[in-house]
């Protein structure tokens, strides 16, 4: 065989949902086989979902996916898919694969047949992050991730042990080398070994979370690794939201000379194809999906994160406070795009300080998205509390926010809705938020967006409605394909007034954000440098920010961070007599 | 010199408070010198505090303690303490110490003079967890921790790189080998090397958090290591609360034959001594403090954790809801012991379902501890909300708890008090708690205590009052030494009725905990096995628990854990465009 067809299965898994994930593998494998694929490739930790955090340390959890891999191999064969090579990620036992291999070579092993891996799950110690190939009814070959990222959002060294072997799988004379995610991000390791072994394809499976600008970084890096091994690199990435991470997909294939051979769409499940021809000097490019523009990309990431959080936690609707301001308006629009406007419960909770304009804007927004809209004035409740408490200043402002928090949670509890927090990154970073008040919620869709980005996305969202654009696989409220009979307000979803007016918390008469914070245009630049680039005071001044602004922003951020950490959720149940919470994913369908 | 006096400085550091920590080192060094010590030994990461979490990754933070170590060495010399060898923990630069050493030996280096280490802090990469010896005005010798724990509450591999060298310091012919905490918990590494080098003393500095029963484990382990190197082992541990961890001190020295040579008290700062005689066949035992009984030990750990959380976060008082139940009563007693009854604001928030007995018990408790006591009925507030919301069932029960949460936070905000959450581990584990309601608070003193333990500690606390006992360095309200003119109720602090009545949340008429939960005597046993020992379903049945109870408890815990994770604090400010919170300690006095 000189031609090999790879199917690239960019799927959305759920942590702990072994049944659901395996069923998705089966379904995509059927489609791949129907399209004459020889190999179908799934993302990192397909069967378990990713990231599994400390679930990896539970013995019962480690055994389950291993049994599932065996069982799935059998089902695939029974369905007549035994000829297909199905590459899935899972959790491996503590026993290194090397010990189950017939070969004796230290750096390379070439898999040609089934292995005796059944007893591995009984071994003790940390498990591995493993890739297995299901073929002919058995777990046919395997590879354990070598580099375990342990920075930023990653904690893999905590829960896994490193693989020590390199694996090459030969299919009809085509030599396929394996790597898992971080393996290609660091020099040395398996890719360096594979570069000396002569491989025809470098196949990588990934769980790489979304960050702005990462698409380019990944492609550059992959091209470098493809050149290093002198063969095309297949990069299959997970898609979907998992807890507070969003995986963007964007699976691709790049040739050794840097040519892009395939690119799957971002933010949706997909099954792409790459036809490898071992005779060809250059591989023939397949389908290359265009990239979204930056605003669409970020907006879609937020919607997908929310949508998957809802699905994976079994919520069908959301509730949130609608103040008439830009933050709650954007969150409501995202929510409507995630689950349909009819599943959004907006609650206007005006106080004695709320302007008529704000109330109108909230009502307009709710109408534009086709959402439910209730008005719950907080003044009588505020007066009842004040009759007993007589609070002043910040305490009285916080009281208003907390009464609203109680109301939002009442909607959440009584109607089974997910409460959304509407804070943006600028105000959260500066502590311009009330704990147990507006910070109440199970998910905070725009917590990673600076205020200036919130305005940009609101403008983009309105433009998209008018232009009737769609976004990656998601329904968009108010555009033609939505077809829900909604009449957007002058062709827009988010009231122009919510975008253009000066931001205010409306917790005292005439209050404006700019009373307490630097102007957002400046503030956001300083925040980006201080928080995202971790620039210290001297760096910030060298960046060109004036000393007074730097000191103001640093003081606000440091104080807010201190206060936020001072009031964590509070009680957590710990595995130790005294100690911290077990680290487990929020969304896990795993039951012992 | 054949005799060497070691001073064992068991101090309470604060993360990020370089000035305060250095000043404590200076003060204890002065005392040690006044008592003719040759060497004074401080706990792990003395200058930075421990654990520093992701602060370690901030360049500005890494540089500061290094400069501080240099400066402190100078100050010690200027004060005439240059002859003293001062062993402190700090954060090391990315550059391994080996590269700054004159010697070339790979496994061992013997330090005899100052090193050129000034430029290290400019190097890139992860820092180390370092021990330095300050002597004669300079940083005289150093050792980098080899084994970096990365399980349970520890994340050191995430933030540090391993040391690769073993260090022996010779003082007057006495060869002192160094190890840091985890280095003695694992086989191999520096202790194995030191065992082949011939040392006279094995000196370990530690930041080992409290767990019940750990005192014995540590001593056994240390005796094993002392035997392995054939020399006495000095174990100096940190004391005090840091965020959600409590360090118990309990510094000790054990000889190669297992003889305990010294033991410092638990839960308080202390300066102990160990006189090493290189001529003696057996070392002479010094002062050996008795261990507290198990109830006293756990109670004191809780009080110290709270007391330090307050001090390090600059709180002088607390507020909490007093229901008349056992949980809030025990927390209030702990708070009074931590900061004095006059700094405790108890708020009784009776509803239409609160019994007269409960109200009386709350009032009695407040009087017994000499605390403030306010009554804030929630019925009018509940009625005001219900007039708008008409909630039923659990939503109506949660509303009562959330109104109380708003009131507690109002006291916190308006009086600058730390709000305490009063939940115990049994109810938190089973989800018998309301988020944003009774779970409100910055610190939860009994979150790690099962309900049956809560009763035991309440009984112990009453007995201690009657007996006039003191607890580790802490003032106890109501006992003779307290001398605050308080007349405990019949000789007890916690009303007997609060201890003996059937537990109830009083959120609906006639409600009892046992309506929703198995009896605590049984529940707590299953929880201990399921949560602390991570026993799965099959294990639990093998443990002898009946199948129905196992399934009930597992269902409660899994559902509660899922719900708790579903409603995290919500918005966190992240360093990445999309991602999770930077991991930083709650209490950090570090300012850039």
TrEMBL record, chains A, B:
Protein name as catalogued: Glutamine-dependent NAD(+) synthetase
Binding site for L-glutamine: 151, 208, 214
One of the GO biological process terms: NAD+ biosynthetic process
Function: Catalyzes the ATP-dependent amidation of deamido-NAD to form NAD. Uses L-glutamine as a nitrogen source.
Listed PROSITE patterns: CN_HYDROLASE (PS50263)
Residues annotated to bind ATP: 321-328, 422
Enzyme category, top tier: ligase
PANTHER family assigned to the protein according to its UniProt record, in alphabetical order: GLUTAMINE-DEPENDENT NAD(+) SYNTHETASE, NH 3 /GLUTAMINE-DEPENDENT NAD + SYNTHETASE
GO molecular function, one term: ATP binding
Annotated residues for binding of deamido-NAD(+): 398, 427, 563
SUPFAM superfamilies on file: Adenine nucleotide alpha hydrolases-like, Carbon-nitrogen hydrolase
Pfam families: CN_hydrolase, NAD_synthase
Gene3D superfamilies (alphabetical): Carbon-nitrogen hydrolase, HUPs
InterPro entries assigned to the protein according to its UniProt record, in alphabetical order: C-N_Hydrolase (IPR003010), C-N_Hydrolase_sf (IPR036526), Gln-dep_NAD_synthase (IPR014445), NAD/GMP_synthase (IPR022310), NAD_synthase (IPR003694), Rossmann-like_a/b/a_fold (IPR014729)
Keyword field: ATP-binding, Ligase, NAD, Nucleotide-binding
Pathway the protein contributes to: Cofactor biosynthesis; NAD(+) biosynthesis; NAD(+) from deamido-NAD(+) (L-Gln route): step 1/1
Keyword Nucleotide-binding in record: yes
Organism: Bifidobacterium bombi DSM 19703
């Amino acid at each position: 065989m000189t031609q090999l067809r790879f199917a690239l299965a960019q799927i959305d898994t759920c942590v702990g949902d072994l049944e659901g994930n395996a069923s998705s593998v089966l379904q995509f494998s059927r489609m791949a086989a129907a399209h004459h694929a020889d190999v179908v490739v799934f993302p990192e930790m397909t069967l378990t979902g990713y990231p599994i955090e400390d679930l990896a340390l539970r013995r019962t959890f480690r055994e389950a996916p291993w049994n599932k891999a065996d069982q799935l191999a059998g089902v695939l064969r029974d369905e007549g898919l035994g000829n297909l090579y199905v590459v899935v990620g899972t959790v491996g036992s503590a026993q290194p694969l090397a010990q189950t291999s017939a070969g004796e070579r230290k750096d390379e092993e070439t898999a040609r047949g089934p292995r005796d891996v059944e007893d591995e799950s009984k071994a003790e110690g940390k498990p591995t992050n493993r890739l297995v190939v299901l073929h002919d009814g058995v777990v046919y070959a395997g590879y354990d991730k070598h580099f375990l990222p342990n920075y930023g959002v990653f904690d893999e060294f905590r829960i896994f042990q490193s693989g020590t072997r390199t694996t090459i799988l030969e299919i009809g004379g085509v030599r396929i080398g394996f790597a898992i995610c971080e393996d290609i991000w660091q020099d040395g390791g398996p890719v360096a070994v594979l570069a000396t072994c002569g491989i025809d394809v470098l196949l990588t499976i990934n769980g790489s979370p979304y960050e702005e600008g990462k698409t380019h970084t990944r492609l550059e890096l992959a091209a470098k690794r493809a050149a290093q091994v002198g063969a095309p690199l297949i990069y299959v990435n997970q898609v979907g939201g998992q807890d507070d991470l969003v995986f963007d997909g964007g699976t691709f294939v790049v040739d050794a000379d840097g040519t892009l051979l395939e690119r799957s769409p971002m933010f949706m499940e997909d099954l792409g194809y790459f036809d490898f021809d071992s005779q060809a000097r250059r591989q023939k490019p397949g389908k290359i999906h265009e990239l979204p523009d930056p605003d669409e990309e970020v907006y879609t990431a937020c919607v997908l994160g929310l949508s998957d959080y809802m699905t994976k936690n079994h919520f069908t609707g959301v509730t949130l406070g609608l103040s008439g301001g830009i933050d709650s308006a954007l969150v409501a629009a995202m929510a409507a795009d995630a689950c349909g406007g009819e599943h959004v419960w907006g609650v206007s909770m005006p106080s004695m300080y709320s302007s008529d304009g704000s109330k109108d804007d909230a009502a307009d927004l709710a109408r534009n998205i086709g959402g439910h809209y209730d008005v719950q004035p907080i003044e009588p409740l505020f007066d009842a509390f004040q009759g007993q408490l007589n609070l002043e200043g910040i305490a009285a402002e916080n009281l208003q926010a907390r009464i609203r928090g109680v109301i939002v949670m009442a909607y959440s509890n009584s109607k089974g809705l997910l409460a959304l927090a509407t804070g943006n990154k600028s105000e959260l970073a500066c502590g311009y938020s009330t704990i147990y008040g507006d910070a109440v919620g199970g998910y905070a869709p725009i917590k990673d967006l600076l205020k200036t980005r919130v305005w940009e996305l609101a403008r983009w969202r309105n433009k998209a409605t008018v232009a009737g654009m769609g976004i990656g696989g998601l329904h968009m409220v108010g555009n033609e394909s939505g077809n829900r009979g909604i009449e957007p307000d002058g062709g827009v979803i988010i009231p122009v007034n919510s975008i253009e007016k000066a931001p205010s918390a409306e917790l005292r008469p005439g209050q404006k954000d700019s009373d307490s914070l630097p102007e957002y245009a400046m503030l956001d630049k300083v925040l980006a440098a201080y928080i995202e680039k971790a620039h210290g005071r001297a760096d910030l001044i060298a960046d060109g920010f004036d000393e007074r602004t730097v000191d103001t922003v640093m003081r606000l951020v440091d104080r807010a961070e201190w206060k936020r950490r001072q009031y964590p959720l509070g009680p957590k149940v710990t595995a130790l007599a005294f100690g911290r919470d077990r680290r487990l994913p929020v969304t896990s369908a795993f039951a012992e």
